[in-house]
Each structure stands twice: as C-alpha cells, then as structure tokens.
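Records of this kind hold a single protein each, on a pair of labelled lines. With that in mind, the following record should read easily:
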Amino acid sequence: MINKLIFLAVFVATFFVRLDAIRGNNLPFTTDQGRDMIDIRSIAIGHKPRLIGPTTSINGVYLGPFWYYFNLPPFVVSGGDPASLLTWQIVWYQLVGLLTYVLSKKINPTLGFLAAVLFLIMPLGFNTSRGLPRRGIIFDHAARLQYQPF
C-alpha cells in the first residue's frame, strides 16, 4: 500500500514539475520544430496526407510520418499552439510511467515500483519533455516495446 502511495506522489509531482517547466511558453522552438509544425499544419488544414516524415541528417533518408500523425490531435484541438504538442508529449510520457508500473508489478511488485519511479524521475526524461524533439518520443516507444508479445 505504501508503494502505491509513493508511486502516486511521484507520478503527480513529476507531472506538475514537467508542466511547470513549460509554463509561459518557456520552451525551445527551433527550425526543426517549425518545419514539423508546418508539415502538421499542411496535414490538418491543407488536407495533404504525408507518407514520409522529416528528413534525417543523411540526405535522402527520411523518418516515418508517425511523428506528424501522433501530434495531429493536439495541433487541431489547440489551433496550432506549439505548447500543446509539448503538453501532449508530457501526458504520454507520464502514461508510459503508469503503464510501466501496472504491467511490471504483475511480474514483481517491487520491480514495478522501482522501474516506474526511476523512469519518472530520471533526468533524461525531464530533458526530453522540455522540448519538442521528435527523438524525445523514442523513450516512450522503448518503454512500450518491452511489453509487446513476440
């Protein structure tokens, strides 16, 4: 019972710390994020679906379009506010922490508690939820993939 209360306290605290860090639109917005917002805008407003994602640092190599479609709902709801995309990313990061707790505690309650708390408080997680890099979501996917049946 005490583990559940500690986890809940860490979950809520890390959520509000992450949200507080972007209060007042205090977030980095570089040319990469601007290009992504333009591409998402062309999907939402111009109704032009994308089959390839943003370019990588290697000429002719593109990422998949998942990043654009993942960020489409908050873009549409907020009218294109970049802070909403970051809030969306923070919410998903927290949900992955919750998923880690729920699924790992079925294997071992102590493992579930430690894995989820460490995932939520790791400094790298705070750094990735501070900006809009499309690489930030990789931590969420990596955490989700550990629970996929093979």
